[in-house]
Design goal:
This protein is of the alpha+beta class. Helix content is 25%, strand content 37%. A 6-stranded antiparallel barrel has the order 2-11-14-13-12-15.
Length: 393
């Protein structure tokens, strides 16, 4: 019995010693690394917008009436001053005839007033009538003249309304929308009812894109734009920034600005209203040294940057070009061949495409930088980079 107890105690002591020894051993830290290589780096600003015709005209009716005839439909090509719709003119013809009759009546009244005034003038000269009668006759003459002018204006209004029964296109273009049918009645009130929407030329279109205020400072007229639409997911279209408008749009405290992109649509593939996902090329560096963005975010656990900003970095050569607005100073961790501990290096970076960043100074092609930590040590969980570490293999 004593022997069994002794054996149990020895085994327990051995297990405890082995557990203590395992706990005291620091686990080997493994790193996920990236290699500095050359490639193209293209910085873009992304946004979404809608394709619209450059010139878009809505045709309405200034008068109320019944649609008697339509000479245009969807996708109909029209010329300027071409008749596209005809309202029933009968009520306006009758109104014009009434106005013409009123003008004739007013002319007759004016002639009578003129004759009366002339007779009163002769009688006053012969002292056969008082001056008051002449004054009254002259006043009636002036009233007749004013009445004639009013009736002539009414006749002109009636003629204009009759002319508006014939609706013409103001521009050369194509009908992209029709809102009425033959036999419908349009009622013109405060707003003219819309009959057609005509686009001037669909071979030239524009994208009205909403650009976030944080990106609008990068946009300038003349920059190249690549964009896609859902109708052709495998095709990339091209355009040019034509204008960045200053009027802000605020929706739920988000401020955006309208960027107008000119698009050549010679093959007529793009249609008004399509949603375009645009990428404005801000800057591009062909065959540049580039570093993974994960390496820029990496920080070793419980360490501080050892490089003092402004001091030359190991392996740094002369700057290949003057400092630009995209340049910044960053610290990354270089893992030299045969070394187990990364060393901090100060570098200058340029533009970024969201995955890789251009390296201007501080690293050479083939250098190995640390992206994150791969370790089984729970104490290191959540350390290494700004977004946590990958789980161990």
């Amino acid at each position: 019995m004593k022997l069994i107890i002794i054996i149990v105690l020895v085994l327990a002591a051995a297990a405890g010693g082995w557990w203590y020894w395992q706990k005291s051993q620091a686990p080997e830290i493994r790193y996920e690394t990236g290699t500095i290589a050359r490639g193209d780096v293209i910085q873009v600003v992304t946004a979404t917008g809608q394709l619209n015709p450059v010139l878009n005209v809505t045709i309405g009716s200034q008068i109320s009436g019944n649609i008697m005839k339509l000479n245009g439909d969807y996708n109909t090509l029209v010329k300027a001053n071409q008749v596209v719709a005809q309202l029933d003119p009968a009520p306006y013809v009758a109104a014009l005839h009434e106005a013409q009759a009123n003008v004739a009546y007013a002319q007759a009244a004016l002639e009578l007033a003129q004759l009366t005034a002339n007779r009163k003038l002769e009688l006053v000269k012969e002292r056969a009538a008082p001056q008051a009668d002449l004054d009254t006759a002259i006043a009636n003459l002036h009233q007749a003249q004013a009445t004639l002018q009013i009736q002539q204006a009414n006749q002109e209004t009636a003629q204009v309304n009759l002319n508006h029964c014939t609706i013409t296109s103001p521009i050369d273009g194509i009908i992209i929308s029709r809102s009425v049918n033959v036999g419908e009645t349009v009622a013109a009130g405060t707003y003219a009812p819309v009959l057609f929407t005509i686009a001037n030329d669909l071979s030239k279109m524009q994208i009205d894109a909403s650009v976030a205020e944080g990106d609008v400072g990068e946009l300038e007229a003349g920059q190249q734009v690549d964009f896609t639409v859902d109708a052709y997911p495998t095709r990339t279209f091209h355009g040019v920034v034509a204008q960045v408008r200053n009027a802000p749009t605020t929706v739920e405290n988000v401020v955006t600005y309208d960027a107008v992109v000119s698009v050549n649509n010679a093959d007529q593939k793009l249609k008004p209203g399509m949603t375009a996902n645009i990428a404005v090329v801000i800057a591009q560096r062909p065959n540049a040294l580039k570093i993974p963005n994960a390496a820029l975010r990496f920080r070793p656990p419980d360490t501080a940057d050892a490089v003092i900003p402004g001091t030359p970095a190991p392996g740094a050569g002369p700057s290949p070009r003057p400092r630009e607005k995209h340049d910044s100073t960053r610290t990354v961790y270089l893992l030299a061949p045969g070394e187990k501990t990364p060393s901090p290096v100060l570098i200058r970076t340029g533009i970024s495409d969201g995955v890789y960043t251009e390296v201007i100074d501080g690293l050479r092609e083939g250098d190995v930088v640390v992206n994150s930590i791969l370790s089984n040590n729970p104490a290191l969980t959540g350390q290494g980079n700004g977004f946590g570490m990958r789980r161990p293999f």
